[in-house]
Amino acid sequence: GANKPGYHLRNANYPRDFQVDLMADIALAQPGDNCPKCRGKLSSARGIEVGHVFKLGTFISERFGASFLDNDGTSLPIVMGCYGIGLGRLLAAIVEQSHDDKGIIWPLSVAPYQVYLCPLSLDKPAVLPTAEKIYQELQKEGIEVLFDDRDDSPGVKFNDADLLGIPLRLTLSPRTLQSQSVEAKWRTEKEAQFLPLENLAAELNRLLREKSAE
Q1: Which molecular-function annotation in GO is an example for this chain (predicted)?
Q2: Which of 120, 130, 174 is nearest to 151 (CA)?
Q3: Does residue 62 register a pLDDT over 70?
């Protein structure tokens, strides 16, 4: 209304010069205030919208001629609704609820991979070939694996593993090869365990099933 003649009026007086549809005390609700309808106490909590439902009614169907025949054979417009799940928001909500100072902690049910395969000292004999064999065997068993074959230090790989938050980390090194085993560590646990290379895929499937059932 700025600079519009006659838009702002001085010396207006209610109810002489205008009428109102609603007169009320308007204020920002605060936790602990009384609900104006039920008189209960208001509370405040943070949330995130991960999905929505909109009732469209017949607004769109009438314009597009979308109809159906009811039991009496009468043509009626379709009553429509809009239902959506925000996948990006859903992932953000999961990360917000499941993380620590090192990174994400993906629940097994929604993790992008189940296993993080981490071979160390790739310049040492048998490490990389053994890791590639493990990768192929796990894939054949239907286990989803992220194979980190970068020639980086253990610290870099472990930090990245924690940051990505894949549920189970498998570490293969010259030391574990000497005992024909791999180190297995859940992202949610501090202690690791050693699993024999023999029948490794079957053992991992068992561990993953048990974890899923928790």
Answers
A1: ATP binding
A2: 120
A3: yes
Q: What token pair was written down for 191?
A: 């202690």
pLDDT beyond 90 at 138 = yes
Q: Which of 95, 121, 104, 83 is nearest to 159 (CA)?
A: 104
Residues 207 and 148 in one domain: yes
Q: How far is CA 137 from the centre of its chain?
A: 29
Residues 62 and 141 in one domain: no
Backbone Cα Rg of the chain: 31
* 118, 183: one domain: yes
Instruction: Evaluate the omega torsion of the peptide bond into residue 167 and state whether it is cis, within 30 degrees of 0.
Output: no
Q: Is residue 14 part of a domain?
A: no
Question: pLDDT tens digit string along 86-102?
Answer: 899 899 999 999 999 99
6 domain residue, yes or no: no
Domain that includes residue 67, residue range: 51-85
Q: Count how many domains the chain has.
A: 2
Domain assignment present for residue 19? The answer is no
Closest CA to 46 of 83, 96, 86: 96
